[in-house]
Amino acid sequence: MTMIQGSTFSFLKDLAKNNHKEWFDANRKAYENARKDFAGFIDKLIPAMAKLDPTIAHLTAKDCMFRINRDVRFSKDKSPYKTNFGASICRGGKKAMLAGYYVHLEPGKSFIGGGLYMPMAPELKKVRQEIDYCYDEFGKLIRNKSFIQTYGDLDKSPEYSLANAPKGYEKDHTGIEYLKLKSFIAGREVPDKEVLATNFLPETAKGFKTLKPLLDFLNRSLLEDH
Q1: Which of 27, 84, 85, 186 has the smallest count of CB within 10 Å of its CB?
Q2: In contact, 91 and 100? CB cutoff 8 Å
Q3: pLDDT (tens digit, 9 = 90+) per residue, 102-145?
Q4: DSSP helix/strand/coil, 165
């Protein structure tokens, strides 16, 4: 059974304490082993999920994993490296403006989930229109028992939501709390012991299975002509 190695978490913990180029260069072999471990997990997860979602069957870990280097151009924090491994499993690859599954590996902060993260204005308009037109369907997706048990709800943090109703929608719209969203994402925190357990892969696939109907709804809104 594919499982995340404890050494991968150890590397990320050490990196968090030594986030600078000299340390990273001296420990590049540990980084390469950790990255290979995470890539192996993703390469096993994709075919496990592809049985349910054929749109991702062609992907490899390389198509999905993000670089560990941070873009520090516009950040006050100039730490050069992320302290996590992340992968977006989306039919168009990690850079596609489509909804997808996401795995985030970070000691004490790991989570699984997915959705559509900060779409551009044209895509955001399409999703809001689909929610507006098909709110009964959308409501059933997010009120599904398994969805609520796994994810609770979509993330409505202030950074992902408007303070007021978006232009063109009434503030008393039944689904206004979702129409105000700028991202349509859901996540479940995963304790370290669960990440390192032998059943992390099937449990992740189970969580993604619960998320798939929402992703299908979001991608339908983006891919169909309006």
Answers
A1: 27
A2: yes
A3: 999 999 999 999 999 999 999 999 999 999 999 999 999 999 99
A4: coil
pLDDT digits (tens, 9 = 90+) for 69-89: 988 787 787 899 999 999 999
Residues 112 and 103 sit within 8 Å (Cβ to Cβ): yes
Whether pLDDT at 154 is above 60: yes
Residue 142, helix vs strand vs coil: helix
65 to 3, 59, 168: CA distances (angstroms)? 17, 11, 37
- Specify the pTM: 0.94
**Letter for the amino acid at 141?**
L
Task: Give the burial class of 46: count Cβ atoms within 10 A of its Cβ; 0-12 exposed, 13-18 middle, 19 or more buried.
Answer: buried
Phi, psi of 139 (to 5 degrees): -60, -40
As to burial, measured by CB atoms within 10 angstroms (0-12 exposed, 13-18 middle, 19+ buried), residue 95 is exposed
Run of H or E residues at 115: strand 111-116
Instruction: State which amino acid sits at residue 221.
Output: S
> CB within 8 A of 190, min separation 6: which ones?
110, 111, 112, 200
- Structural tokens at position 191: 């304790």
